[in-house]
Design goal:
Elements: H1 3-14, E1 34-39, E2 42-53, H2 56-59, E3 60-61, H3 68-74, E4 82-92, E5 95-99, H4 114-120, E6 130-132, H5 138-141, E7 145-146, E8 149-150, E9 156-158, H6 161-167, H7 170-175, H8 181-196, E10 213-217, E11 226-232, E12 235-241, H9 247-250, E13 257-258, H10 264-281, E14 284-287, E15 295-301, E16 304-309, H11 310-313
Parallel strand pairs: 5-6, 6-9, 12-14
Antiparallel strand pairs: 1-2, 2-4, 3-13, 4-5, 7-8, 10-11, 11-12, 14-15, 15-16
Bound molecules: zinc ion (ZN).
Residues 137, 139-140, 242, 288-289 line the site of zinc ion (ZN).
Length: 315
Amino acid sequence: MRILPLLIGAAALLAPMAVPALCAAAEPSPTVATFRLKVGEASIVALSDGVFPLPADQLLIADRPGVVEPLLQKAGLPAAPETTVNAFLIEVGGRRILVDTGSGALLGPSLGGLAASLKAAGYAPDQIDEILITHLHPDHVGGLTADGGAVFPNATVRVAKADADYWLDKAHQASADASVKGAFDGAAASLAPYIAAGRFKPFEPGQALSPGLTALSTPGHTPGHASYRLVSKGQTIVFWGDIVHVAAVQFPDPAVTIHFDTDPTQAAATRKALYEQAGGNHALVAASHIAFPGVGRVSQVGKTFIWSPVSNVGR
Ligand SMILES: [Zn+2]
């Protein structure tokens, strides 16, 4: 019977976590961390939002039995490995652009550290000009608001129209699996002050973003999931979003999906295509849920793929 652990996992991801009073003294706080690198003329800063235990043995779905647990064990990981939530700042051409905003107050006490990480990197929220959202899950949009107000008073929020159309639609919420219904409320609440201020601007496929930045349609995890490619002075970095949730499993076997994928078959196909692109052009990749800073390169060995963190492969 998988329902109970599945719901526990869903709760960890998608709902505020109730902390028993006895545990209050040991309540975790988000990991604050920054990591800066240059890509052409752009400065990229990886920003930690924190970590949480992802019940991978319950939430990852393989196309055959006996895949997930052995790969976790091979990597020396428990059934619920610690998983990072990363966001990224791009500073280029006098503009400061965030890719995703972390969890804010939507998830547990070990998440929501983006604002502190941004401050530690030397930036104030009012310096952010634009925010590119990969998709409207709570660990990517929760940091947009605090106490119902906009955290970033000067920023325009961009997201693929297909994701906005899905997550802001009450009819989709009504028919969604119980474990993701809360994500609809989180998306609506996070975007509300930006919509009210006329600073929420969904984009159509192919529509131009800031100079040097291109949105890539990478659906499957959500209907309008987008990745973002930045090219500066001939160097490239691709901000993946949620192409990977558990690197130790999904690089060796890209066919492994996660319970929260709205279209698992499409998600697996998108993942394999992005792995092949990243491996083929040797581009830098910045990923939301790969161990901080989540920046590295991909290489292909036969049918499997290997992630090399930027600290190992140079910048
Ligand atoms: Zn995510």
